[in-house]
Design a protein that fits this description.
Shape of chain A: globular
Mean pLDDT of chain A: 97
Low-confidence stretches of chain A: none
Number of helices of chain A: 8
Largest interface: A-B, 54 and 54 residues
Oligomer: homodimer
Order of helices and strands of chain A: EEEHHEEHEEEEHEEHEEEEEEHEHHEE
Distance between the termini of chain A: 40 Å
Number of strands of chain A: 20
Strand content of chain A: 15-25%
Amino acid sequence: MKLATLRDGTPDGTLVVVSTDLRRAVKATSVAASLLAALESWDRSEPRLRDLAKALSGGPVSGELEFTQATVGPPLPRTWQWLDGSAFHSHGALMQRAFKHAPVDAVQTRPLMYQGGSDDFLGPRDDMPLPSEADGIDFEAELAVVVDRVGMGTSAAAALEHVKLVMLANDASLRSHALPEKKTGFGWIHAKPATSFSPVAVTPDELGPAWKDGRVHLPMRVSWNGRAFGHPHAGEMGFGFHELIAHAAYSRNLSAGTVIGSGTISNESYRTVGSACIAERRAIEIEDGGHAVTEYMRFGDRVRIEMLDANGNTLFGAIDQRMVPARR
Amino acid sequence: MKLATLRDGTPDGTLVVVSTDLRRAVKATSVAASLLAALESWDRSEPRLRDLAKALSGGPVSGELEFTQATVGPPLPRTWQWLDGSAFHSHGALMQRAFKHAPVDAVQTRPLMYQGGSDDFLGPRDDMPLPSEADGIDFEAELAVVVDRVGMGTSAAAALEHVKLVMLANDASLRSHALPEKKTGFGWIHAKPATSFSPVAVTPDELGPAWKDGRVHLPMRVSWNGRAFGHPHAGEMGFGFHELIAHAAYSRNLSAGTVIGSGTISNESYRTVGSACIAERRAIEIEDGGHAVTEYMRFGDRVRIEMLDANGNTLFGAIDQRMVPARR
């Protein structure tokens, strides 16, 4: 099942069920006012949403809409919590070596995670308004899952069944602020503008055998201004999403609708598969030649983030967005 | 004007206007379904809430309720964003010296701020469920403000008018996790369980001349198991709330209902006024005698946090809560 949110002038938008090929949709307002509301009563809403999905896959349905990735909002325009991991070890190790970050204890056994803004997400084709090119504008291609309510102390084994939806994310960073804020230990405020999500969120079963061990075993395709930038494989995630969820829930309950991110997708074979963020390419350049060559994004630049199934069909639709100056 | 939220089985509760002496209340459901909803349309809801407050102050009103701090929820049971500063310089400096934290650049000119969970706040008299006494359970007495929508790039000067409400907070910490998580640079997940808030949130005018320069110029009274622990003066805040808000809004919009915290209240004269968290007392003990004597909280321990006006009347009511083991 694939779900999306149409813009309707309200903060949470209108929930629709989308066909597998992302061409057709049907409103699900009879089930829930919004995706967030659906997640808050998932046990009741899921079977009814699946009924709609089944009808849609069977042929034309009453009230059917053409689905257009160009205008859709993020699946969750806002939610109660966004916790982003950094679960690809090759990314952390490379960044640490190149940018001389302080080493982190137990990085192979204890997930890294920060909390970001969840009140103002961007849609897949929205321009991303930012304060300044001088901030070092970077994209970060990630996977993210949405959970229903997870009680404090839930184990990793029990956490897997709380994964209700999977999405792609562009967790953009302002790199000029990232290291100074990291050094404070307090996490990122200036370095983390609004995160963008893919046109649709999909239930794990849509991924077929690619969903395994709390990971999505497919490559992420990233291009920058129309040129291929990287296609690292997301199956190399050092922690499964279930482990990230259990980490997040150690001393807190997670409300339904909480989004958990993977961190920038990265592979040990970064020299052949490329990267999912510019900082990682710069780190490779520093390792190779002593200094970074690739500059960060300029206003007007575009990033495209997409994941295809084994047959070459888009699973989530594409994030494809431009960086623009914020209006002051 | 003083506002509170009664528990009614819904996630956001029922908004009430409370009398200045915290004895009487009247439901404001005719104005807004919840405090969060009121904040999302504050220009329209504020005058109508003030009408209710004025009627309540004039004598008995229809549908009047007895207000009881013992059962009230937090003013905002959940909201879209909770950003907590660390704006009392004496606290940071003392912690850094005693616990050998890495020094932070520009700490006098750039506020420290982390994002915490905002989906599951606790009421002022709720037990606080926590995983383990071994985690180093500490209270932190703070002030917090609630804003309406703040656009990206809002200046500190313009931010002051966005402060709509002021509350007290117990931003409890699990100290055994605080330093390891700080060292990652990613901020706090395990170290920050749910935050608790005072029985009422008040408009700044309720504070009279004590509200000045984006600060509350009154002492915070903290007691632990019935014994006075500290009464540091909140006017010594190194950054005003307007400066914290502007810092938060550099690269993001803040949704209406965003809560901004001051961090643990602390004074340079900590040896005479005491502290608003146990870690600070331990830091003083380390400075004095080389090692900490005071242990962190045990299950069953209580903390009480309150602020009185110049006449000795409670302004926000009291946070008075017990630490308890989480049910697993």
